[in-house]
Design a protein that fits this description.
The chain is an alpha/beta fold and 775 residues long. The strands form eight sheets. The chain has a six-stranded mixed β-sheet, with helices on both faces. Strands 1-4-5-7-10 form a five-stranded parallel β-sheet. α14 packs parallel to α15 and α19 runs antiparallel to α23. It is globular and about 90 Å long.
């Protein structure tokens, strides 16, 4: 369970009688870069960047300012781009608990993470900090990190709320999003985590949403986050995001970070004194900040846990092993035999690994496993030789040809090649987006040269964002997506490549054949201060699948050194109809123990009246099986998981009809499918003459009433035949009923429409009351 929020007794509650207005205003901004103000009996709260490890300042100057370019050592765990491919909430929770233990050791009360923004475009420079292109997978992994932190007594700051999906013009750009994709894609993970996992704080993003800056967005911060979802924690700003402190407080933003030396505190005081800002607004924020401060500083006191750097490094290595994705393995090239043959390790990234992203999340690791060193240590029976093959930024470009020739010669005289390729820090970072998704040209040419002299090539990638693998991946029989794996990544890669660990990672984002195939391509990153989310709900695999686009590697894809078979899929609704019990049997049909991630998708009714993705992830579960072993995998789905958001009805609605529940190994590898009839939610819309004939006929109350009216009146004017004609029925379907009633030959007249609307409203009310009584 999440640690409970300490209650405020009358003796320690902060009210207008406890502190001066100036003191109260000071609590709503930071005292320095990563610490809040203390006033009266409200303690200061220390924060740290840390989605995948703490960024601990070495020096702290006067006023709480810190040196952002110098950090003390902390365990660098795999960033979210890698952890997302683990599909393992339990692992994410353990990683977060370890980060929390280190935080408490260093006096840090709140970790600024996790980041749960959706990967809308592969070009986003900060994608390495985010889990997935899917809101459910993001919510499960992000929620696990919130639980891991807070159960260990350290607060989480869920970020960046919301629609912070690019770095271009990130401080100002307006993300212009229709209500349905906003709810289904960009708010869904936030909603799930806020409702279920109760984060202590939420960080408002830099950007605007539909023209309103997030730090001043009352609808997002108050109406949705607090009133609709029940959030009772603190809303803080991203660092430097507040432009109007008074407007931000009024919108529901409690804490401006970092501090401004009292300048904006004075603006708050003046606004209250002038009547521009209600003092109750300030007091509500102060009450929330007081609870936040006491909770953050009290849990786990008085002693911090002992932290073992060795144990945390082992966890970082274990996590990295779980994150590695085997994309292809033709002819079983991998794993390599560590006791025989000769192996050419080619690529500077094997010797100078890139293991994390650049920007505010950068960690100084306690140690670093280098892939080349780890391969040499693990393959003590084989000859392992190295050639850099290319230079990284800052190297001597004049040596490029000599390095490629040296690598070519080494590959020609070796049994197998492990070719390490990837992106440099200057290619992707917080602060800017990428221009393309290609590997450096010299690396692509190296694939061609190496594969020409040795067909046994396994490419190992190191990258924080998706890279294009086509067409060169056809030259490499084996391809391993290593992402950015944290400080234990070198040993983890050696374990997977040499077979000590069977890979089980699955892609949490699609790898396209071309950047142009990305659903967001034509509307990213926007122009003139606005970015239009024109793809709607068709983000990531939803868009690729809906357009039947070929992809290099599908969402959820990942191979193993063994094989798995699925059988016996069953879907049973609960007696009250609120849940679906999904079960499928999985058998390890190979020769090695392995872990399979069973993915459960749903497809909506074939006659759906809304634009739907081909399929959507609804749940997942993993199972570890020995050779020949089988097990039943069970996934519980809530009926509400099948809902879409109706902007017209301002709420979530389950569409009635035959839904298909699918058990799959990826969004493109559907193993089994079972139809299940789902009763739809009654419409909340009150029918009027402005609704079309089709909308009337589809309504469970209005449809029969209108059919009865047509049948009753059709005998006198012969119009029932017109409705029976399929062409005429389609012609009339999109016309409002009040327009049809004006036609001279219409079976219903304007006065009939008014009466029908009244009867439909009465019938809908009676139906809803009956449904409530049955429930």
């Amino acid at each position: 369970m999440t640690p409970q929020q300490p209650s405020l007794t009358p003796s320690d509650s902060v009210t207008s009688h406890d502190l001066t207005l100036t003191q109260r205003a000071s609590l709503t901004s930071g005292a320095g870069d990563f610490v809040t103000e203390a006033a009266g009996n409200v303690p200061a709260v220390s924060m740290s960047d840390g989605p995948h490890g703490l960024r601990l300042p070495k020096e702290q100057g006067d006023g709480g300012q810190v040196d952002l370019h110098s950090a003390a050592p902390a365990t660098c765990f795999p960033p979210a781009v890698a952890l997302g491919s683990s599909w393992d909430p339990g692992l994410a929770e353990r990683v977060a608990a370890a980060i929390a233990a280190e935080a408490r050791t260093h006096g840090v009360h709140v970790v600024l993470g996790p980041g749960i923004n959706i990967k809308r475009s592969p070009l986003c420079g900060r994608n390495f900090e985010y889990f997935s292109e899917d809101p459910l997978l993001t919510a499960e992994l992000g929620g696990a990190m919130v639980r891991g932190l807070q159960q260990a007594g350290v607060g989480a700051a869920l970020k960046h709320f919301a629609a912070n999906n690019q770095e271009t013009d990130r401080m100002r750009v307006s993300a212009d999003i229709d209500e349905r994709p906003l709810r289904e894609i960009y708010l869904r993970a936030f909603e799930r985590i806020v409702r279920r996992d109760r984060p202590w704080s939420v960080m408002a993003a830099y950007n605007a949403l539909n023209g309103v800056p997030l730090s001043e967005n009352h609808r997002l911060l108050t109406d949705i986050l607090r009133t609709e979802w029940g959030f009772d924690g603190v809303v803080m700003s991203d660092w430097g995001a507040v432009r109007n402190r008074v407007a931000a407080l009024r919108a529901g933003l409690d804490l401006q970070m970092p501090g401004t030396g009292g300048r904006t505190d004075a603006e708050v005081v003046t606004a209250v004194e002038n009547g521009e800002l209600d003092v109750d607004v300030v007091d509500r924020s102060v009450e929330r900040l007081a609870r936040f401060a006491r909770r953050a500083t009290a849990v786990g006191a008085p002693e911090a846990p002992e932290v073992s750097p060795d144990a945390h490094h082992r966890l970082a290595r274990e996590a990295a092993e779980r994150c590695i994705v085997l994309l292809r393995n033709d002819s079983g090239l991998l794993p390599l035999d560590p006791r025989a043959g000769s192996v050419a390790v080619i690529g500077e990234l094997a010797r100078t690994p890139r293991f994390q992203g650049a920007g505010s999340s950068q960690v100084t690791p306690t140690r670093l496993d280098v892939p080349l060193d780890c391969l040499r240590a693990a393959a003590d029976g084989a000859r392992v030789e190295f050639a850099p093959g290319y230079t990284l930024p800052g190297g001597d470009p004049d040596r490029a040809e000599d390095l490629a020739v040296e690598a070519e010669h080494l590959a020609a005289r070796s049994d197998t090649v492990l070719l390490f390729l990837g992106l440099a820090a200057q290619d992707e970072s917080e602060g800017f987006d990428r221009d393309h998704i290609d590997l450096p040209e010299e690396q692509v040419r190296l694939v061609e040269r190496i594969s020409a002299v040795n067909p046994r090539v396994a490419v190992v990638l190191s990258n924080g964002g998706v890279v294009r693998t086509a067409p060169w991946h056809d030259r490499a029989p084996a391809l391993v997506e290593g992402w950015l794996l944290g400080q234990g990544g070198g040993a983890a890669l050696a374990d997977v490549l040499l077979g000590a660990v069977n890979p089980s990672g699955r892609l949490s984002e699609t790898i396209p054949l071309r950047l142009e195939d990305s659903p967001s391509h034509l509307s990213f990153p926007g122009e003139e201060g606005h970015v239009r989310y024109g793809e709607g709900v068709f983000v990531g695999y939803r868009g690729y699948d809906a357009r039947r686009s070929e992809v290099a590697f599908a969402f959820g894809h990942g191979l193993s050194y063994t094989t798995f078979a699925y059988s016996g899929l069953t879907v049973r609704p609960s007696p009250d109809g609120t849940r679906l019990d999904v079960r499928v049997r999985v058998t390890n049909t190979g020769q090695r123990a392995g872990r399979e991630v069973v993915q459960i998708y749903s497809r909506g009714p074939a006659d759906s009246r809304i634009a739907r993705p081909e399929r959507e992830l609804r749940g997942f579960a993993a199972v570890d099986l020995a050779p020949g072993e089988d097990a039943e995998v069970r996934v519980q789905l809530d009926r509400t998981d099948l809902a879409h958001y109706s902007a017209r009805e301002a709420g979530w609605r389950v569409e009635g009809g035959s839904h298909h529940i699918e058990a799959a190994a990826s969004s493109r590898d559907i193993r089994l499918s079972v139809p299940v009839d789902i009763e739809g939610d009654p419409s909340q819309i009150r029918l009027t003459g402005r609704h079309t004939l089709a909308e009337w006929m589809a309504d469970p109350v209005g449809g029969p009433l209108l059919s009865e009216a047509f049948a009753r009146n059709g005998g006198t004017n012969g119009n029932t035949g017109a409705l029976a004609d399929p062409v005429m029925r389609r012609f009339l379907a999109g016309i409002p009923l009040d327009v049809i009633s004006e036609f001279p030959q219409s079976s219903v007249k304007p006065e009939d429409v008014v009466a029908l609307a009244a009867r439909a409203a009465s019938g809908a009310h009676d139906r809803a009351v009956g449904a409530d009584a049955d429930g």
